[in-house]
Amino acid sequence: MNWDKLICDVRLGQEGRQERKGGVRSEFERDYDRLIFSSPFRRLQNKTQVFPLPGSIFVHNRLTHSLEVACVGRSLANEIAQPLLEKYKAEPWRDKLLKMGEIVAAACLAHDLGNPPFGHSGEKTIGAFFSEGRGQLLRNKLTMEQWDDLVHFEGNANSFRALVHQFRGRRPGGFAMTYSTLAAIVKYPYSSSNAGEKGKFGFFTTERDVFARIADRLGLIKQGEDRYSRHPLVYMVEAADDICYQIMDIEDGHKLRIISTDETISLLMRFFEPNRAEHVREVMATVADPNEKIVYLRSCIVGLLVDECARVFVENEDAILNGEFSGTLIEHMSEVPAAGYRACSELAFHRLYRAGYVVDVDLAGNRIINFLLDKLIDAVLHPEHNYSQLLLNKFPEQYDVDASSLYEKIQAVIDHISAMTDVYALNLYRQLGGISLPTV
Prior knowledge:
By secondary structure, the protein is mostly helical. The chain contains 20 helices and two strands. A two-stranded antiparallel ribbon has the order 1-2. The longest helix has 26 residues, at 62-87.
């Protein structure tokens, strides 16, 4: 692959447009601004990241997480761009590298756009509805590829769909984002039939041709049937996401007093070499507020991890461009920060993600999403029923409940549920279950 093709500001659905809008903003900055002002992005403020929303203590939600990932992603991309600008200084397309930070920032904003309510548990619940729940009854009515899409339901693939699908009444190309921004969010550039044991994939059957068109234009390496190499910028988006959720989850755990101040400081100090650790301790000694100590540590660690991931990318750029790089940037860091990151991951898994109120949200979310899938899928399959007609009135017009195929009708239901906030899903569950009535 080569950067000249990889950085492309052609917009999906507007490929024939020749003119470019005036002003100082690049097309990639327009991507970023378009996302910021969009309804799907604003809804992220009421979607769970890890901890329940909202309590007396403010913790991260999907929106604050996405904004932080965009900040870190931009910094990481700009850090990487500097040595690449020197390496390719003789190339006529060299200045395209200056746009890397803009593309990565926009992709970071969009990376969770398709995630359903109730955190990662909501994502797993949708797949389990079809593999374990009442959705199994639909198995023989769908193709193998369609069934793989449903049982392996993937938030990343749903984010791509949210951006590119022409929902009813909308323009061709969906958000009409640039090719490079769209490719930069697809962590798993292959279909669900290639998902393997981990169940990860990057695009549904309905968006396969769209991704193929983008991949061909950008020169992504085809590695098999419906399988491509990653766009190199994906590694930066992924690293920014990994850095933010891991470190911010620890910070939230401290705010919620799941982890003590001393334990949190001891944990986070493991990222630093002895000389750097001594300086960090000296600065912390000048701060009395425990929360500010953690904030300072967090900022130091984020900067350290950005530098580490930038180094790994630059050192492995040739392998990345050849589609031969294995793993994530985080996994190739130096031993000390890598050990610190592993320690945070282990603590988060055992102490944070299994905390009582996190599990309570997972259980409630599981019940709510299963209930909504059951009722809404039944409504689109049997629209002639009186109850179904009432229920179909709850669907926004953009979702095509009258689609010609069963699979697309099911997708309309999943699109609707995925777009819901935690609060909306809970309220709809209560109303449909007769637990509460709407107030005027």
